[in-house]
Protein: Signal peptide containing protein
Amino acid sequence: MLVKRASTLIVASLYFTLITTTQARLTTYLGPHYFPNDSVIYDSDSFDNASLAYAVCEKYPDGEDQACRLVLEEDSITLSCDLVLKTGQTIKDGIFGPRLEVALLRGRRAMLVWWEEVSFFEYRMRIDIASFHRNESDDSSSCRLIEAKFDLGSEYASDIVKIVDHSSHYDLIFKNGGDCRDRFCKMSVDASGRLIERPRPWASLYGTETKPMIVSIAPETSRLGYLLIEGTGRSEPQTIQIRERWPASIVRADGTKIHLKNFTHGFPSFYDPVYSTAHGKIGICTQVNTTCTCSQFDHSGRTELEVNVTLEMVTFATAMHNLPDGRKGAGFLLLITDCYLTACVTRMQRHSVWMIGNSGLKIGELSFDKLDCEFVENLADVRLWETKEGEYCASFVCYKRDYLVLGDDIGHFNLTTVCFDDDDFLKI
Structure:
């Protein structure tokens, strides 16, 4: 089996390792740059095509200006844009999530949304849209920055939940904001950052204590709406409990909900439910102990497939990807990662991708070597995606918090992508 692998390592704003493997050929590039007083926020939806959008901001700004760098990693190329956030008088440690959000946009663009304090506890929404350009002759890069400001009222300094790139506009969804109260707020801007639709109450909130998962069903249009999974949000391992009700819904553009299912998910799975919106289906998998429950729905909310997958042991991270109808009888791919111990306090042991048929049975499997992501002081995001028919990739982001002599809490992470195709699966 030929497994292709590419890896990028980032420490604070810059720490790059690129590894490409083709059989026995290995090439490594390393250029370490340490910024111990910076913090990193990245777009967890951006790396399902081997790219990554992230922002690196100084953690302890001097005065009211917080320096940030908006970065796009794409095809082994690094493109960046420098900008400044206005922290105001009461924010001493900088602006970070959940009131700061970054998103990868189409056409080598990225967006940073944040709240600027204009006076004591009075805020203004700021949007920075960066267009990245690369000079092919000397490998240099430049950017064009569009800045927008919106005076929405002090009550709108809210948690930013999602930035969605549609073909004609961008939707911004946030919660705990102003007149929206027990509902999400949704607003829209155009490609130049101009306001198209002011914040308005949108879908109802199941709870406000955690960050919900919102995914565009079809990013090219807002007509089909969003997949909404509520009750999500990572916790420390010692505090995780099984949650009996994780409601999943389709939310239309007008905010109406189509309830799909109440899922059970929790300990000892340390991460949120996983999903796929590929090939005109909505797929969701949740886990309790060694049982993974996966469901697929059509765009009207009708259940098409539901299966319980029994795992060999507790998994460290999972991902799923819907397969097209009629494709060798397959329903979806499920990626699982085993641990040496059920508490997942040591390095991952093995990664496996299962092909689950529309009968609910496993019809294919492949495995590849472990990726070095130790759970202690680490978080991991995983995405499965399709390059073309019958060819797939899995992207892993391992985010670390290190305590080194250079300073406390150095944010860094590495992105690794492993690719495979239908012929790599052992048929069962």
Observations:
- Residues 1-35, 234-240, 402-410 have pLDDT under 50 and may be disordered.
